[in-house]
Design goal:
Layout lengths: L1 H25 L16 E5 L3 E5 L8 E8 L9 E5 L3 E4 L7 E9 L9 E6 L18 E5 L8 E5 L3 E4 L2 H6 L1 E5 L6 E8 L2 E9 L8 E4 L4 H9 L5 E6 L7 E9 L3 E4 L7 E9 L4 E4 L2 E2 L8 E8 L6 E4 L2 E2 L4 E7 L5 E9 L2 E3 L6 E3 L4 E9 L2 E5 L6 E3 L8 E6 L2 E5 L7 E3 L9 E6 L2 E3 L18 E4 L2 E3 L2 H4 L14 E2 L5 E3 L4 E4 L2 H6 L9
Parallel strand pairs: 14-15, 15-17, 16-18, 17-19, 18-20, 18-21, 19-22, 20-23, 21-24, 22-25, 23-26, 24-27, 25-28, 26-29, 27-30, 28-31, 29-32, 30-33, 31-34, 32-35, 34-36, 35-37, 37-38
Antiparallel strand pairs: 1-2, 2-5, 3-4, 3-6, 6-7, 8-11, 9-10, 9-12, 12-13, 39-40
């Protein structure tokens, strides 16, 4: 037993000795080796897309470090860069974006051989050297892209459209390039490459294409506005915009149009106009994308008074809103010389509040060969008047009038009618008037509103029109009217969501399905 205890004690003492020796070895700070240790904890951090910070732990007795950088994921034949540094870090700047790199480091010292290499790989991010686009550099059909002068790149690709622009030496020196062939109101993304590496990405949206339009800003006096229109060139395009302070209202005033022109607004920068126009020699007039309200006008007036018009000219009113105002009529003609005009177009408009006729052509002077009224809404107007009146004259023979896909609500045309268009005394159907896919609705039954009370309105054709509370438009037995839509469909309930609030959204599935009335209200 005693021998066993002595043996066990000896073993324990031997174990303690071994442990003590191991601890002593961990604390050694100066051991001679035949070469330097290799750096450890080699790491790379990519900053600002294309700058790489390489770090490692210091090596005992090292006086410097050699760092080699290669392109690719493996050791290459020739270093891209070779640097010797005293500290245990180095920063590589302005590397190529989206590129794989291989880096290796070794320690060097005096009177001792250098260490073995340690290595790592990393990849840079896609860089973006594009500068913010300046307002003056962005147009409807072009953009100037800028970056720091001298920064090299090879191409810029713009989508949609896959426009590829090859960057020139002059572009690089200037730090900019102009990209053309764009389309207005379109979102684009431009990517700049240097070979296969991305140097920049930027997204932008082009403004509306105003072409050669001249701009009239709100805030001008009546004299200034009149002088502006008086100085227009023939066939000029005019864009009405808010001023720098955000004022978006143009005053109630009459403007003479002596030359053909197009007057428009921008949906993104809406304005409200009180203008009334007097056509005095202009052949073609287009009004679009504007809201009109002349509530400040002193007297009731027509929106457009046709004094005299160039032969063959056209009038187009499109995408406009006419709010409750003091406009009495939309269009009237005066007693001037007779002119054979081209086409009158009213499309995608909303009109309300006019106390007189929408169209009053009883002077028999300006004779449109074609009148087209489509995709529009007319409500609470023409009380005790007509919706449109065209008296017969030889110049109007053969004219075609089209009223299609329109919504009429409380258009109380109880004077001569909604379509008071007359043939000659012989009743030889000197015109054609087509009503199709329209919707006529009244709050209470309209027993005194007719299409026409004149027997010489003798060539009106109807197709797929719908009616509610409009007995005098569909019932030939009611005294007074001479023109009826006997094939019209009579509804048993109002088809509108909330007509009293001006919401004419259709709640009738049949009307939606069949495409009846102004398309803006269909679901």
């Amino acid at each position: 037993m005693k021998n066993y205890i002595k043996c066990l004690a000896g073993c324990l003492m031997l174990g303690m000795a071994v442990t003590a020796c191991s601890d002593a070895a961990d604390e050694l700070t100066d051991v001679s080796y035949d070469r330097l240790f290799s750096p450890v904890e080699l790491g790379v951090q990519v900053r600002n897309q294309v700058n790489a910070t390489v770090t490692w732990n210091k090596v005992n007795k090292a006086t410097g470090y050699v760092v080699e950088l290669y392109t690719g994921k493996v050791l290459g034949d020739t270093p891209l860069r070779t640097e010797t540094v005293a500290e245990n870090t180095i920063v590589f700047t302005e590397l190529a974006g989206e590129t794989d790199y291989f880096v290796r480091v070794k320690a060097t010292g005096e009177d001792i051989p250098e260490s073995k290499w340690v290595e790592s790989t990393f990849k840079t991010d896609a860089e973006n050297i594009f500068e913010a686009i300046q307002t003056e550099d962005l147009k409807a059909t072009s953009v100037v892209l800028r970056w720091p002068a001298g920064k090299e790149a090879t191409t810029i690709t713009v989508t949609p459209g896959d426009i590829v622009y090859n960057i020139t030496a002059e572009d690089i020196a200037a730090g900019c390039a102009e990209i053309t062939g764009l389309t207005g109101e379109t979102e684009y993304t431009a990517v700049m490459k240097n070979g296969e590496s991305t140097r920049g990405t930027i997204t932008f949206t082009t403004p509306i294409d105003l072409g050669d339009a001249v701009i009239l800003y709100a805030g001008g006096t009546e004299e200034e506005v009149n002088a502006f229109f008086a100085g227009l060139e023939e066939n000029a395009s005019v864009c009405l915009l808010p001023d720098a302070e955000g004022n978006n209202t143009f005053p109630a005033m009459e403007i003479a149009l002596t030359k053909s022109c197009s007057i428009m607004g921008l949906a993104a920068q809406p304005v409200v106009c009180g203008f009334a126009f007097s056509v005095e020699g202009a052949a073609n007039v287009t009004i679009k994308d504007l809201t009109f309200n002349n509530a400040d006008a002193v007297e009731s007036t027509s929106f457009m008074d046709m004094v005299t018009m160039g032969a063959g000219g056209n009038v187009t009113i499109e995408n406009c809103v006419f709010e409750a105002s003091k406009y009495k009529n939309l269009l009237t003609e005066t007693d001037a010389d007779e002119v054979a005009a081209g086409k009158l177009t009213i499309n995608n408009c909303i009109m309300t509040g006019m106390s007189g006729r929408a169209i009053d052509y009883q002077k028999k002077k300006i004779n449109f060969k074609e009148v087209s009224i489509t995709n529009s809404t007319f409500y609470e107007m023409c009380s005790g008047q007509d919706f449109m009146r065209f008296d017969y004259c030889d110049g109007r023979a053969g004219a075609v009038y089209t009223i299609s896909a329109c919504t009429f609500y409380n258009v109380n045309a109880s004077s001569k009618g909604i379509a008071y268009i007359r043939s000659n005394a012989s009743g030889d159907k000197a015109f054609t008037c087509n009503f199709s896919k329209n919707l006529f609705v009244f709050e209470t039954d309209a027993a005194d509103v007719f299409f026409s009370e004149d027997s010489k309105t003798d060539n009106v054709l109807f197709s797929n029109n719908y009616y509610f509370n409009a007995s005098s438009l569909v019932d030939s037995s009611i005294t007074g009217g001479k023109v009826y839509d006997e094939a019209g469909t009579v509804l048993n309930a109002s088809p509108f969501k909330d007509a009293a609030s001006g919401d004419f959204t259709l709640v009738n599935d049949d009307l939606n399905y069949n495409g009846i009335g102004d398309p803006r209200w269909r679901q």
